[in-house]
Amino acid sequence: MLGGMGASAMMSRLGTLSTLAQTSGAASDYKALVCILLAGGNDGHNTIVPLTQAAFNTYKAARAGLALPDSNGPLLQVQTPDGTPYGLNPGLRFINNLWSTSPAGGPGRLAVLANVGMLVQPVTRAQYTNPQPSVPLPTNLFSHADQVQQMQSGIPSSSGGTGWGGRAADALQALNGAATFPAAISLSGPSLYCTGAAIRSTSLFPGFNCDMAGMDLWPATAAAARQTGVQQVLQFDSGLTLVQAANKSRKDAMDLNALLTDTTTAQINTTFPGTTIGAQLQQVAKLIQIRAATGMSRQVFFCSLGGFDTHGSQSWQQWDLLGDLSEAMNAFYTSTVNDLQMPDKVTTFTISDFGRTLQPNGSGTDHGWGNHQLIMGGAVKGGNVYGTFPNLALGGPDDSGSRGALIPTTSLAQYGATLARWFGVPDGAAMNSVFPTLANFTTQDLGFMG
Predict the structure, then answer these.
(1) Is there a smaller number of Cβ atoms within 10 Å at the N or the C end of the chain?
(2) Any residues with CB less than 8 A from the CB of 15 and at least 6 apart, and which?
(3) Is the pTM of this model over 0.85?
(4) Right CATH number for 30-205+296-440 from 3.40.720, 3.30.1490, 3.40.50, 3.90.190?
């Protein structure tokens, strides 16, 4: 149970979030999916590089001046169980140790899914390049706005209004019993991924609480008066549905943030980096820490890190961003081991708008399609590359044109379904409601989860 008068006082103000007691109807186990959006389109080709001589030569010829290794340091060499060598971007230096081992010992806890992207059904180069394509394709390929929505919705024709994380939480709503704590929480503003038909996404901004900008007035009575005024504005009934929904979301975020800053509520001893993604993942750890008090058994979380639209200066920019990402992911995994003591119950994974072109446009890259994604957690069968690693020849069998915007060989539906199955979503009607295109793919479990 939550301890201390501060936590008790806060719980009384949580409105729809107020029932934080353990419920007899909730399942005794717990699982969480933590999605990290690499906003802008991370360059997967320089996230993991094939190191067999023939594949590396093809990669180097296509990448020209962007080929790794570069001045940021040598590639972090790893290999798959069959001995195939790969090199991770040196920015991933904080998590490459999870490839073959974990801090607690044992098998690897980090894997890569190769060449995954938005698909309606499998597509070949011949089908795609046909002047009149004979297979359906996702709408508005290569568009940031459309593809970031589709990657969150799991629907290749539109945003769909709900996200696949929210729909997965919908399918398992009964496991949370009568608990009214949020089952889907975004740490990065409003999130389509967390929105279900029944489950409402709650937005939480790390640091957005009673100490937020404009609230640190002196004397304390002035700060309290301003906080009261903000609360009154947020609770005012304007009669406008959209405004009311926005105000409700912000009030929930303020209340939930205040709950998490109470040291009697969630105590995380792991040191997280003072970065945007570090703060987001630290809050996720705190939210999972209070699971016994909230009565939750299944939760989905959404985080994001921007800046990956690297049309220029990619070499340094991507290395720096991947450094921030890997440092935060390492701290989060360490926290699941030491603070939460359940690393096998939390799975963290990345998505991105799309990949990048193999062929550079100078010092950067342009919008692509298929991409490589990271998967981390105690239940992950780490130390391996899953899916089909693409042929990196420009104009080759996996190229949608002549610049290396690769046609995905694995769909987002297959990726998400593998995660959702571990999460507890049953096969059949429930899984198909989460991923409407899944039936179009023969392989529906990619095997990276234990």
Answers:
(1) N
(2) 251, 252, 255
(3) yes
(4) 3.40.720
